[in-house]
Amino acid sequence: MNTNEEIKQLFKLYLEGNTNPLQEERLFALLQKQGMSTSALEEGTMEMWNDDVPLRDSSLAAQAELQSVWQKIAEEEPEKKMNTSWLKYAASLLIVCATALGWYTLKIKEPELSQESSMLTKTTNSGERLKLLLPDSSVVYLNAMSKLSFPTHFNKGEHREIYLEGEAFFEVKKDVSRPFIVHSGNLQTQVLGTSFNVDAYPGSDIFSITVRTGKVGVSTRNGGGRKHLSFLTPGKQLVYQQKTEKYSLNELPLAEIDSWRENRFIFRNEELETIISRLERSYPVSFKLKNPALLKCRFNATFSNQNIRQIMEQLHIMTAGKIHYKFNAEKTTITLWGEACE
């Protein structure tokens, strides 16, 4: 199969929503590899825009965004020759990227909120969780010690953009004309309609995005634009390291993705330092350690609907009594001491 035929087949699958992440990555790679002139690409795109009515978004916002794409291409791409036999397919892909996957398109200006829309901010304290209904009827479950900022309403034809510091689980109402975007630090998560978890606490070196249903795209800031990292499907998790700007992809059982909503803590080979951080967010307590080496002890454990004293007792038992604990009189501080783990 030659390159043109492969692009046609992959693009047809893409428009039908039947591509997997590997096929989508391959399609974008082929598109970037092919040389194309600005004038030829614009002509082919407009042809597809006019011919394929079911794919066309005729709103003023879509037209303006399409024009913005041409301006950016004219500024950055040199004139090259190309084979027009696959032009309209590649061009249509650009339309889809510009209107539905703006995070993937390089240096496309992100839309700003209308001046008529003001921002609301909701925060949670230690041990507090909050369920929110957004203006578009999407549902957000905000974990402890988190902050969510969102507009009083989402404007027609514009992206639904919100800002998260901390952790939240999202159930996004599907709206193809208005992609839903979560900003968390350097990361940007974009969806049309799906459910997923974002863990992005300020001060943490590791952020994660995990999908329960649907498909999401994750990108990061790259100069003045965005750099695409990965597509995620159900059970897939992206773990991003803030300092190195590197990321890894993992698989997670669906039941574990939002276990915190049911007051279940699942630790898989986690250091005590990580466990303590989560417990301090979820319960109104703080920890003091007499032996800092204890922070490197690792645990595999699941705690379901247990109070903090029950959890501490289980940790004590799991270390064969080597880690000891004591509550202060007000039961707000827990002191740990004992032998370092091997």
SSE map:
Layout: H1 3-15, H2 21-33, H3 38-51, H4 60-76, H5 87-100, E1 119-123, E2 130-133, E3 139-142, E4 147-151, E5 160-171, E6 180-184, E7 187-191, E8 195-200, E9 206-213, E10 216-222, E11 225-232, E12 236-241, E13 247-251, H6 254-257, E14 264-271, H7 272-282, E15 286-289, E16 298-304, H8 308-318, E17 323-327, E18 333-338
Parallel strand pairs: 5-6, 15-18
Antiparallel strand pairs: 1-4, 2-3, 3-5, 4-5, 5-8, 6-7, 7-10, 8-9, 9-12, 10-11, 12-13, 14-16, 17-18
Q: Could you characterize the architecture of this molecule?
A:
Helix content is 28%, strand content 32%. The protein is α+β, with helices and mostly antiparallel strands. The protein folds into 3 domains: 98 residues, no CATH class; 138 residues, Jelly Rolls; 76 residues, Phage tail protein beta-alpha-beta fold, CATH 3.55.50.30. Helix 1 packs across helix 2. The radius of gyration is 24 Å and the shape is globular. The N and C termini lie far apart (56 Å).
Structural class: alpha+beta
Percentage of residues in DSSP E strands: 25-35%
Poorly predicted residue ranges: 36-115
* Helix content bin: 25-40%
Major sheet attributes = 13 strands, mixed
Gross geometry: globular
Number of helices: 8
Secondary-structure arrangement, i.e. CATH architecture of the largest domain: Sandwich
The total strand number stands at 18
Give the CATH topology of the largest domain: Jelly Rolls
Instruction: Tell me the radius of gyration.
Output: 24 Å
